[in-house]
Model the fold of this input.
Amino acid sequence: MVNLVLFDAGLMGYSLAVHILLVTVGMTLPIIMSIAEFVSIKYKINVYDILAKRLANALIIFFAVGTASGVVVAIELFVLWPKFISVLGQVGILPLYMEIFAFFTEAIFLGIYIYFWNKFKSRIKHWLLSVFIAIGAVMSGVFITMINAFMNTPNGFNIPYYLSTGKIIDVTPFAVLNTPTTWIEIGHVIGSTIFAGAAFFLAYFAYKLLKTKGVEREYYKKAAKIAAAIAIISIILTVIIGIESITNLMVYQPEKFAALEMNFNSGPHVAEVIGGFLVNNKTVDSINIPGLMSFLATGSFNGIISSNDSLAAYAKSTWPPITVVHNTFDVMVGLGILIGVLLVIFLIIWLLNVRKIRDRFESNKFFKKLLSKKMFSDPFDNPLVLKALIIIGVLAAFLLEDGWVTDEVGRQPWILYNVMTVSAAANTSPSVVPVGIAIIAFYVVVLPATILFVRKVMKKRDLNNELEARP
Amino acid sequence: MNVYISINYVLLAVVFTFLFVEGMSAISFMYDRKSLPVVKKYLDPIWGIVGTFVVFFVVNAEVLYPSIMPAIDYLYVFPILLATLLFIGRNLFLVFSEYIWKGSRFSQLALARIYSLITFIIIILLLSIFISIISGVGANPSLTGFSAAVFLSNPYVFGFIIGTLLIAFGLSFVFYKIEKMKFLSPMATVTGLLLFILSIRGLGLNTNYVTYLLAVAIALVSILYYVTGRTRREVIFIAAFLSVLSVNFLNYAKVFGTKSLYSYLNNSAVSSASILVTLIGGTLLTAMLLFFFYMYKLPDKENGGDNYSEENDNGEKIGIANLYIIPNNNKVNGKERKKGKDGKR
Done:
């Protein structure tokens, strides 16, 4: 007999895991496209115009799949978690409602942008559409993250009364827009999503830079520069906001914080636990750095960690799977910082190759010698760097999924933190199983099919010819 | 009359109007291959918006009647999830048919027909859910289980669905100016209307003179097109919208046959807040849609307005997006240019 609660959770998790990959593309593609079109108008460089047009074609295909996938996730949310959705509807549904209008903004302006491209006499007005598309895509993410923040730190109703009677009173519907974790989560989620999307495209353009020559290579170089700039800015912001979000977690979700840190201690000089497993309530095979957690949390190695931030303060029945979330958390932090550092180094080398900056440095003999080394050559022409960018693209996808697993599994067993458990909210109708399996199977086919289709569509359009034909 | 329920009904009417027109598109792909460019010219820019309207209605219903959701989820989880799954297929095959390249194993028409098949099933599922929610057919009294046997053994359910599809078939001639066996248009429309009205009465739903007036108007649209060959698409949009609206308002607040939507209404705080969001969002949405239709009607600047005249369409062109933003690649670029002497690549 299938455990229906587990099945619902698995189905939702699987659908979201696929959907967030599509979201990264859907959110970042309009930004790259918009920048490309703007540069083409402002500096009258036609290559950017071709880039914008080709990206627009890819966007509409990804949009078709992304919207459908978004609908699947939204409907799953409704049908798999009826009790949760009932509470959400009576308290915190407004962000979801607002998201529809963001979604409309994206869909309508995308339709006009693509299908009526040649009807615009003013290119700048046409470009403005791309700005609205990007805003619509980002705002959809913002509103959905608000719902997630509500799940992590519910507010806007009398929770003690609900827990004792099951009735909802004292509702303040707009409170959901500003829970204690809302804005930190939005910064971290949107930043990481845009980073992951930019990293995918950067990886693709880097691959093309390795494979192409001549005018086509120049095209991909320009595209890669846009993607790289977005990736660098977003990873820096994501890391900074990520650090802030851990502090936020300590205050508002202490049990989750304790689980992510696999921490059983409180008081001064608490060690940071890196890696390891939980066996019989004891941490094994971990690296413990004395005083580091105290330092990270308070700025002093002897700083005091509150007893609330220790797993010892909570009943075992409310712990999430500690080993899983602790390790996914460590991987997220480690990998995020590593990629961030690598991209900052990449940025420095890139800047050192900007003619004006390079000239200034090369007036000094020492720097001239240093900059003549291969590692300081144009990073977009360095095969080693390009290969590294491809690896970063793959890691970015992993990082995004890993971060999402950390957030969602870290909240278990709650669907609504300290208010409603996942098992209480689940739809236990057996009808879910066959369609759920079909959805899983369908996704397995859909995503690769879409990527292959986009690749083929792009391949069928001879880029060289378009570039040579430009005025 | 409750303002929240009325807003929800208006939205439902918009959703079903778009779906009805999409049903006509799907029928046309199946019925007449020559309709392909004309239908795609309508469908390509708008499919994304139709999907969004469906989600809009679902979320609006959740905002207004959250406590009805557990019942709906338990009763209709299978058809809802199935329709959702098919929705991915609908988007996928539509966009694939738009971008499919020349010489592909799959023709544009074949992909469009797969889209049609999927769309038919989605529409049948949604009509079934709608009629069951409003009439209660198939739902047990405690609203915890759905009997497919009871639902499928009710002839009026079939009458309702087949009637609706027949009307869509009849009006598709009018909407897309299809000439192939045009006499079928009034026949299908009138038969469909009779079946539709008979069925909703059989299902215990209310009808009155408005129902008959609308039916006469819809029949006249079809007959006039058959006789004169003249029509306007807007008429069909308005007729479909008013028809759905009339069914809902004539059965005001009725749900699951005997229950009232009033008992499921959300608390006043969320309802009031939702009105504010609906007003602001709705105004923005209306402005965006007006802009969309303004651009739709505007002639193309590079082609002196010829691009949208139906006479210029032909099956060889591959999708509107391709026409507009990519130069004639398939004819002068890439692989075509690399053909060998024998024409093979």
About this structure: The two ends of chain A are 67 Å apart (CA to CA). Chain A has a mean pLDDT of 89. Chain A has 17 helices and eight strands.
